[in-house]
Amino acid sequence: MSDETSSLPLRDKVALVTGGGRGIGEATARRIVARGARVVIADIRDDLGCAVADSLGPAARYAHLDVTSQDDWRQAVEFTRGAFGNPDILVCNAGIMLSGPFEKASPDDFRRAFETNAMGAVHGIQAVLDPMRANGGGSIVIVSSVAGQVGVEGLSAYCTSKAANTMIARCAAIELAQYNIRVNSVHPSKVDTPMSNSNAVASVVGSSSSPDLPPLGRIAEAEDVAALIAFLASDDAAFITGVQHVIDGAGRLATSTRTTRPGKAGDSAERGPNEDPGLRTKERWA
Ligand SMILES: NC(=O)c1ccc[n+]([C@@H]2O[C@H](COP(=O)([O-])OP(=O)(O)OC[C@H]3O[C@@H](n4cnc5c(N)ncnc54)[C@H](O)[C@@H]3O)[C@@H](O)[C@H]2O)c1
Q: For an engineered disulfide with 193, which of 8, 23, 68, 240 has Cβ 3.0 to 4.6 Å away?
C-alpha cells in the first residue's frame, strides 16, 4: 500500500450506501471511495446504480436493494460481505418525497413515506448489526432532513417520516453504543439533486434558482452533504453518536429574522403576486 493510500481516512473500510444511484447517495459513494473505502451502491434503479459502480472501478459494486424489503436487505448485506467483507459503514440515504396538502394525503401516502424513509432505515440497521458487531464496531448515518425538524406546508408525509429518522438514529445510538456502533442523522436543507428539482417538489419547495437563499448564498450541492457523511463514517468522528447534524448554510437561523408573514408591513413588496404566502419559509427545506 502506498503512503498516499495509507493516510486516507476510510482506508480498509467497507460501506453500503442506499439510494446510491444518483443525488446525495451517488456523491456519498464517490466521496467514500475517494477516501479509501470500498462501497456497495444499492438502489432500486439498477441502470443508475450500475453506472455509478462501473465508473468507480474495482472499489465499487452494485446491489439491487429496495429498502422496504427485509429480504432485499439480507441479500444486500450478504452480497457486501462476499464482495468486500463485513460492512463498517451503512448510509441509509434512499428516500422519497411525497407532496400534497395534509387533508388530501391518503393513508397510503403516509405509509409509502414511512415504509421507505423510516422503516428502510430500521431494516438497514437491523440487517447490518451482526456483521458490524463482528467487526468490533461501525458507523451508521441516516439521511434525514431539516424538514424532519420543522414542519413544511405541503410535505406532511415526508416531514413526519423524516422526523421518525431522528428518533430511530437516537434510539439506535443509545442501544448500539455498547458494540461501538455509532448512529448519527444528517439534516440537509434543500440540496441540488434530481429529487428537489422534480416538478412536483419544486412546486412546493421552490426551484434551484430560487432567489431566497440561506446566508451562505447558495443551496447545498450533493457533495456538501457527502463530505459530512464521510466525516461521520470515519474514525475521526469516533466519539460522535446520536447527534442530529444540520447542514443548511445557516438557513434555519436566518428564518426567524428574514421571513415575513401575510399582511405584515413590507410583505407585498417582497413577494410576487402569484407567490404562495408560505413559500418563503418552505424554499429552504427539503
Ligand atoms: N434533495 C434535497 O433537497 C434533500 C434535502 C434533505 C434531505 N434529502 C434526503 O436525502 C436523501 C437523498 O435525496 P436525493 O435528493 O439525493 O434524492 P434522489 O431522488 O435524487 O435520489 C434518491 C435515490 O434513492 C433511490 N430510492 C428511492 N426509493 C428507494 C428504495 N425504496 N430503495 C432503494 N433506493 C431507493 C432512488 O432510485 C434514487 O436513486 C433522501 O433521503 C432525501 O429525503 C434530500
A: 23
